[in-house]
Amino acid sequence: MRNFLNSHISIEIALQLYETMQRIRQFELTVVDLFARGKIPGFLHTYVGEEAVAAGVCAALRPDDYIISTHRGHGHLIAKGGRFDLMMAELFGRCTGYCKGKGGSMHIAEPDLGMLGANAIVGAGIAIINGAALTAQYLGLDRVAVAFFGDGASNTGAFHEALNLASVWNLPSIFVCENNGYAESTPQRQHQKIKDIVVRAVAYDIPSVIVDGNDVGAVYLAAQEAIARARSGGGPTLIEAKTYRWRGHYEGDPQMYRSKAEIEAWEQKCPIARWRNALISSGIPAAQLDAIDQCIHEDLEHAVAFAEQSPFPDPAEARADIFTSVSEVA
Amino acid sequence: MALLTYREAVRQALREELLNDERVILLGEDIAEFGGTFKVTLGLLEEFGPRRIRNTPISETAILGAAVGAAATGLRPIVEIMYGDFFAVAMDQVVNQAAKMRYMFGGKISLPLTIRSTMGGRRSAAAQHSQCLEAWFMHIPGIKIAMPSNPYDAKGLLKTAVRDPNPTLIFENKMLYNVKGEVPDAPYFVPWGQAKVVRAGKDVTVVALSDMVDFSLKAAEQLEAEGISVEVIDPRTLVPLDIETIVRSVQKTGRLVVAHEACVTGGVGAEIAAQVTYRAFDYLVAPVERVGAKDSPIPFSPILERAILPDDQDVIAAVHRTLDYAA
User: Fold this and answer.
1) Chain A nearest CA to B169, separation (Å)
2) DSSP string computed for B142-200
C-alpha cells in the first residue's frame, strides 16, 4: 500500500484527492436518482468510475489555470472547485444555476474557476483549449490549459489539428484523454486499430504518458509532471488515462454493447475504494474519511434543496445573453 | 482624405487596431511573410512580429478553435479564413462554439473574436473558391455579419468589429480588393446595423450586397436614361440588419429588388423580401424581385461563370419586371 510519507503526495493532497473523487461520485449518484425521478430535464452523462482522472489532474492545477470539458463534464467542474448548489440548480434548469439555466448538464461552465465549459460536440474543446493556452503564453502568464476528452474524440479532426498546433506553437496545453474504452456505444477496437492513444503524440512530437486512470495518485503525479513542463515553457503533453465508465453513455442507455461481467470487473477497480484503502493503510482513521463523506452528503442535500427552491428563469429572458451589448463594455 | 484600395483600407484597419490594443493578434494561413493569399496582411509581420502576426497550419478547426479560446480568455484575435468556402471544414467552431458560447454560459463571457474571410466569384476560381455563404451564418443567432462594398466601409466596419465584444464575421469581396475609394486620414468607425442609401431614387428600391452595390449603381445609371429613378441601399451589415431603412424606402417606392451574388434559393434576399413583405405589404405594388446566382455550383470556364453569376443587366431586368407588373 502507498506510503504517503515516502511518496511525493502529501497527506493533505491525498485527502483532497479522496474528497474530490467522493464529491464527484456522490454528486453523480444523486443526479442519477433525481433524473430517474424526472427532476432533471434533458439528458445526463455521468462520470461514475472515472473520478480519479478529473480529481488527479485538477489537484495539480492552480485556480487560475484553465480546463475545458466534454458532454460528461460534471466531474471536471467539481474537481476545479465547482459548487454543488449552483451546479444542481443548473441541471434543474433554474435561473440560479451556473449558466442561468441556459446551458444545462452539457454546457455547464464557470469561467471564473477557469472552467471553459462542458462541450457537447465531441473533440471541439481540444481545439479551443489551445486558445486559452495561447492567451497564457502571449500574456506571459505561467498558466496552463487542460482539455479533457475521450477515446472517441481522439478520432476527430479537431484532436489532430489541435495537437499539431499546440506542438508547433509550443503551447502550455495539456491533453488528457480519458480512455474509457467506448466511444458512446462503440468499443475502442471497433473505432481505432491502436490500443494506446499516446502513439498519436509521436506524430506531433509531443511527450506523452499512459497512466492507470483508476489510480488517482498516478494521475496526479503524471499531471504534475506535464503541468510543470508546460508552465516552464516546455510545451504540450498528451496524457492517456485508462479508465472505465460504469454507467451507460447516457442515463437510460440499455448498454447492449457490453457485458455485465465486464462492468463488474471494473467496479472491482473502483478508484475511490482503492484510494480509501490506501489512506487507511497509511494510518488515516476510517472515521476521518467517513466525516468527509458526511460533509459531502450534507452539502448535496443542501444543493438539492437550493435547486428545488430556486425559481425557473423568466421566459422573457430566453433571448438575453446572446450578445454582449456594446454599451456594456464601452 | 486618401485614395486607398479596398485591400489597403482593410490593412490600415488591421494596423491601427494592432497599434491600439496589444491584445489584438492575427491568425491565419500564409498571413505572415506571404502577406495572405490576397496580400491584405502584407508588411504587418515586419511591423508587429511573429508573436502577433501568426502563421498557422492549414487547420481551420484548430485556427478557429484557438481563436475562440483566446477570445474567451482575454485576447482579441482576428482570424483570416482564406476563402469563405473553407468554413465548411470548420463550421463547428463558428456555429456551435463561437456563436453560442456566451449564451450557453448564461452571459458569463464575452467573445471579442473577429473573423475575416473572402467571398465571391468572377475569377474562374471554380466551385470551391467562389461561393457566397453569408446566408449560412445569418441563420445562426450569435454572430454578427458584415459585407463591405467599398474601401471606406471595409476599413470602418472592420475597426468597429475588432472593438466589438462579440463574434463578428466580415466577408471581403475578392473582386473589390483593387478598387479604390476615399478613406479619411484620421481613424474612424462605421457603426454596424446602419444601412447606407447609396443613391436616392423614387421608383424602385434596390437592396444590394457587396459588389452588387456597384452593379446596381451601374444599372441605376442606365435606368435613369430611361426615366426610371432607382434608390440603391447597401445594408452593409446583415446582423444586425437595418430593416427600417429598407422598409422606409419601399414605403416610398412601392417596389423592391434584392440583389446578391449568392444563390437565390435560401439566400439573404429571401429573408429581406419576407421582412419587407410583412412590414410594408400595403405599400408594395409589385412582387419583390430577387437577383442572385442561378442555383448551380460555380463553373470554371469564364463564359459559364458569367452565365451563372448576376450583374447589372440582371438588376435592370428585375427593375423592369417590377415596373411592368400589372396587378
Assistant:
1) 14
2) T-EEE---SHHHHHHHHHHHHH-SS-EEEEEEGGGTT-EEEE-SS---PPTT--EEEE-
Please write the tens of the pLDDT for every residue from B70-92: 999 999 999 999 999 999 999 99
Give the nearest chain A residue to B107 (CA atoms): A321
pLDDT score at A330:
44
ipTM given for this complex: 0.96
Quick check: A155 and A164 in contact, CB under 8 A? no
The residue among A107, A121, A129, A134 with the most chain B CBs within 10 A of its CB, best to mutate, is A134
Cα–Cα nearest to B166, from B145, B147, B193, B187: B145
Asked if B142 lies within 8 A of A112 by C-beta distance, the reply is: no
Picking from B69, B111, B166, the nearest residue to A129 by CB comes out as B69
**A110 vs B contacts (CB less than 8 Å):** 108
B165: nearest CA partner in chain A: A324
pLDDT tens column, A218-255: 999 999 999 999 999 999 999 999 999 999 999 999 99
**Dihedral class, residue A140 (left if φ above 0, else alpha if ψ from -120 to 50, else beta):** left
Nearest-CA neighbor of B291 among B325, B271, B316?
B316
For residue range B112-147, what is the model confidence (pLDDT) as tens digits? 999 999 999 999 999 999 999 999 999 999 999 999
The pLDDT, as a whole number, for residue A3 is 54
